[in-house]
């Protein structure tokens, strides 16, 4: 079974965390807190898909990104 790796970066390109499940990065950001002006980027190693996260990112957007990356593993 193929697995993915997700890399979380801040707006300056600094790597903050790497996880095999994108949901774990959401938990990390939820615990850290996202300020109104904060911007983070998550990139899938397998698909190359990038996801921009701000304080206004919805649960549905997180779900769509995770589902899209998972489909590419099939």
Describe this structure in words.
Helix content is 34%, strand content 26%. It is globular. The mean pLDDT is 92. It has 74 residues and is α+β, with helices and mostly antiparallel strands.
Q: Strands, helices and their partners?
A:
Blueprint lengths: L5 E5 L4 E5 L2 H11 L7 E5 L5 E4 L5 H14 L2
Which properties best describe this structure?
single chain; 2 helices; four-stranded antiparallel β-sheet; 74 residues; alpha+beta; 34% helix
Overall morphology: globular
**Rg:** 12 Å
Q: Give the topology string: H per helix, E per strand.
A: EEHEEH
Through-space gap between termini:
9 Å
Average per-residue pLDDT, rounded, comes to 92
The total count of helices amounts to 2
Q: Reading side by side through the largest sheet, how are the strands ordered?
A: 2-1-3-4
Low-confidence stretches: none
Q: What is the percentage of strand-forming residues?
A: 25-35%
SSE-based structural type: alpha+beta
The description of the largest β-sheet is: 4 strands, antiparallel
Total strands: 4
Relative helix content: 25-40%
